[in-house]
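Notes from the 1:1 (GR / supervisor)

We went over the backlog. Supervisor wanted to see one worked example end to end before approving the batch request, so GR pasted a single chain during the call. The sequence is below; no edits were made to it. Supervisor asked that the structure be written out right there so they could see what the output format looks like.
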Amino acid sequence: MKIAQKLNGEVVFHVKGVTKTYQMGEVEVHALRGVDLNLYRGEFTVLLGASGSGKSTLLNILGGLDTPTTGQVLYGKQDLTLADEHALTEYRRYHVGFVFQFYNLIPSLTARENVAVVTEISKAPMTPEDALVLVGLGNRMDHFPAQLSGGEQQRVAIARAIAKNPDVLLCDEPTGALDSQTGIMVLEALQRVNESLGTTTAVITHNAGIAQMANRVIHLTDGLISDIHVNAQRVQPNQLSW
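Structure output shown during the call:
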């Protein structure tokens, strides 16, 4: 079974001429070399590229965790490149959910309590229970991280990211530490979030198989966008060629 994409065309991110240069000793590393890109509301995007292609740097800039060396990043009408640290903190807190390769759960807290840590500082959060049900963990809420599998811990991390009702969900190699079967369960959770909440979702990966479930696939090579591919039909996670 395949699912057709449905996008309304509203631009959430407008990226223009973005570069990022790091100084490592006497060597300049050009992580991004002039990226132009729009991301759209409700879109599920995969940023695909090898290690060192610039995809994590781009994701960190979109999430307000880093700033470009040159260029402009607009989130709606907000210019993130002109924002000070306070404004970026507010942006990250209220608009962006992050999911990383490593789960970063608090070992002494249950799944429910790990999610509640975020909802307590949010303006209009979901309940921790609703967030955990959405990622398929309704029966594991009171388990501690050590009692959960890797895939379940990652789904708790997704629930924690979405519980504050973010407009944007940014995922950095969310299946990188998982086997294919467990990874598919995590991707199914991300898909449910995208479809149920309409959250603009960007997933970075080096795994080309994941690209089949995206609305668009953005290929990065050596700090540049080398190709953008639109999937006319999206493949369900459980049918991906891993």
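Supervisor's comment: The chain has one domain: 2-239.
Batch request approved.
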